[in-house]
From TrEMBL:
Gene symbol of the encoding locus: ppaX
Protein name according to UniProt: Pyrophosphatase PpaX
GO biological process terms on file: DNA repair
Active site annotation, chain numbering: D9 (nucleophile)
Native source species: Bacillus taeanensis
Record's GO cellular component terms: cytosol
Family according to the record: Belongs to the HAD-like hydrolase superfamily. PpaX family.
GO molecular function terms noted in the UniProt entry: inorganic diphosphate phosphatase activity; magnesium ion binding; phosphoglycolate phosphatase activity
Origin organism lineage: Bacteria, Bacillati, Bacillota, Bacilli, Bacillales
Length: 215
């Protein structure tokens, strides 16, 4: 069966928020644990909900750490966020060709909407599932299942595209095809360990995979 529905992670997949995320983690961790965490530690946190990352350090103080992170993140958002090359054109083609498109992210809705609006990608997505909308974040299948339900999509017709192990695991748990992006900050080899169905060297590669290339 052909793919007619594509779900995308946002950060690190469609938009480059790496500098923003690292800066916000660095700001927060240096405030609470000066000198204890470096860039490699921070990269390991990317892709999971903030609270889970901070709760492993200090469960009682995790809410305060999340608040500190988000304050910095929102204040610096538009200065540090950019769109990956080829993303806008690819999503625009998929939209024009009638594919059902959704965002499935572990971010809160306010910053998701900021990123989509900044890059003008907001016009293309019929469904956006954020951390606010679910009880269980990726890799639990709930966010993907919710997006598919809202889009009227079947798992066998759906693909999840992302930059972290949580996206690939979430896709497999929801019984959909998976595609990993090689520009992930986690590294191509790391994502390959989770056996995605496809590896995207560039976002336009997706058009060939789903049969949407312009002839």
């Amino acid at each position: 069966m052909t793919i007619n529905t594509i779900l995308f992670d946002l950060d690190g997949t469609l938009i480059n928020t790496n500098d923003l995320i690292i800066a916000s983690f660095t700001h927060t961790l240096n405030h609470y644990y000066p000198g204890e965490y470096g860039r490699d530690d921070i990269v390991g946190f990317i892709g999971e909900p903030l609270y889970e990352s901070f709760a492993r350090m200090n469960k009682e103080g995790a809410d305060d750490m999340v608040a500190t992170y988000r304050e910095h993140n929102i204040a610096n958002h538009d200065l540090l966020v950019t769109e990956y090359e080829g993303v806008f054109q690819t999503i625009e083609i998929l939209h024009k060709r009638g594919y059902k498109l959704g965002i499935v992210t572990t971010k809160m809705r306010n910053t998701v909407e900021m990123g989509l609006k900044l890059t003008k990608l907001d016009q293309f997505f019929d469904v956006v599932v954020t951390l606010d909308d679910v009880k269980n974040a990726k890799p639990h299948p709930e966010p993907l299942q919710q997006a598919m339900e809202k889009l009227g999509a079947k798992p066998e017709e759906t693909m999840m595209v992302g930059d972290s192990q949580y996206d690939i695991k979430g896709g497999k748990n929801a019984n959909v095809k998976t595609a990993a992006v090689v520009w992930t900050i986690k590294g191509k080899d790391f994502l390959a360990e989770f056996n995605p169905d496809y590896m995207l060297e560039t976002m336009p590669d997706l058009l060939d995979i789903v049969g949407a290339s312009v002839k």
